[in-house]
Specification:
3-stranded parallel β-sheet, 15% strand, 8-stranded mixed β-sheet, 13 strands, 2 domains, Rossmann fold, single chain, alpha/beta
């Protein structure tokens, strides 16, 4: 489907679970408390209708304990009512849509993992307002909660500079390309370009902008897309040097950055992939995301006790403070009253020819969102 780049996440998640099943935990038993985790997944092609069918299959036929890491805003919105009605944990919804950390009273069986899109957009807006208060701004965004949350966050961060947005163009996830949108944004003469898009359309945006000889001074691309692998693909696909103007956010270690080559957690990560998912590229941040969320899931299962229940799992994730070795140093998985976004700290990074380098300290969202 249109989000096929993310397909490696489930494969990497399963690889880490296979590693846990084969390894002895703190209690000297294999798996979690001597239990083996049976992890299975179905491809929904980023289609909400298919995801509902898959959720029913998982709950009614496979009798799953929990649904973990389903990807996509609309996909997770589609299955949320059903999973909550069935009282099945919808854990670590792989989306930063603000509703998944905000509307927990209405949806007590649902929680996300990554920072909220509204926080991400706000960070970019605040930085632009401070550093380029008079610059013209153009935005490409996906026409759903994903794109709209980022756009709203951007406008909130810009504050009274939101009027500097001279072009906003949306696209449908089913569209073949974003040629017309980029042409319209180019015509605005904006010097700052924000790409709130999934990998397929972000790669197109760079290539089309370059072909049209549009040369924004700075490009902000959402962190759910702007990995080293995707940005390198964008360069090769026609984005060229334009891609080197990219700023984005990070909350986890970048497996493509040599900085982490000798890091203990990253050595384990590469070993896990080499043994259980050798077809995956260990430099792909989406693979790391799969392993990081699998690690977090195992942490919560252990926290839930020797006889975990669905309610016990949700209790564990609602009041949680634990390090994850795959996250950036200083970042923490933390939830509590009024704060149900497990990760809420990010750093800004700049892309240069195959490497994302940190250009800011960790910045953390406040619980009141």
């Amino acid at each position: 489907g249109p989000a096929s780049s993310y397909g490696v996440i489930a494969v990497a998640f399963k690889a880490y679970i296979s590693y846990i099943n084969a390894s002895r935990g703190p209690d000297k038993k294999r798996g979690v408390g001597g239990r083996q985790i049976n992890f299975r997944y179905y491809d929904d092609g980023y289609n909400p209708a298919t995801s509902i069918q898959n959720a029913r299959q998982l709950v009614e036929q496979d009798k799953v304990f929990a649904v973990v890491g389903a990807l996509g805003t609309n996909v997770n919105l589609a299955v949320r009512p059903y999973l909550n009605a069935q009282k099945v944990p919808q854990l670590f919804a792989a989306t930063g849509a603000t509703t998944f950390g905000r509307d927990t009273k209405q949806w007590p069986w649902t929680i996300g993992y990554q920072p909220s899109y509204s926080f991400e957009g706000k960070i970019y807006g605040t930085k632009i307002a401070r550093n380029s208060p008079n610059a013209k701004i153009a935005v490409l965004y996906q026409n759903d909660n994903f794109g709209e949350d980022l756009l709203q966050g951007l406008e909130d961060g810009l504050g009274d500079k939101a009027s500097n947005i001279v072009g906003k163009e949306s696209y449908e996830v089913t569209a073949p390309d974003v040629k017309s949108q980029i042409a319209k944004l180019r015509a605005t003469g904006a010097s700052i370009f924000l790409i709130f898009a999934t990998p397929k359309f972000a790669i197109q945006a760079y290539a089309i902008a370059n072909a049209l000889k549009w040369s924004p001074a700075v490009i902000y691309t959402t962190g759910v897309t702007a990995t080293t692998v995707v940005l390198s693909l964008a360069q090769k696909a026609g984005g060229g040097d334009l891609v080197n103007r990219t700023l984005t956010y990070q909350y986890a270690k970048d497996p493509a950055n040599p900085l982490w080559d000798n890091d203990e957690a990253m050595i384990l990560y590469r070993k896990v992939l080499a043994k259980y998912a050798p077809a995956l590229d260990p430099k792909n941040s989406f693979s790391l995301y799969g392993v990081a969320t699998a690690h977090a899931f195992v942490q919560l299962l252990r926290k839930a006790g020797p006889n975990p229940t669905r309610a016990g799992l949700m209790k564990s994730v609602r009041s949680w403070s634990e390090k994850n070795p795959f996250l950036l140093p200083g970042n923490l998985q933390k939830t509590g009253p009024g704060d149900q976004f497990p990760i809420s700290c990010v750093q800004i990074a700049r892309f240069t020819d195959g490497t994302l380098s940190r250009v800011s300290q960790l910045q953390c969202d406040t619980p009141a969102r």
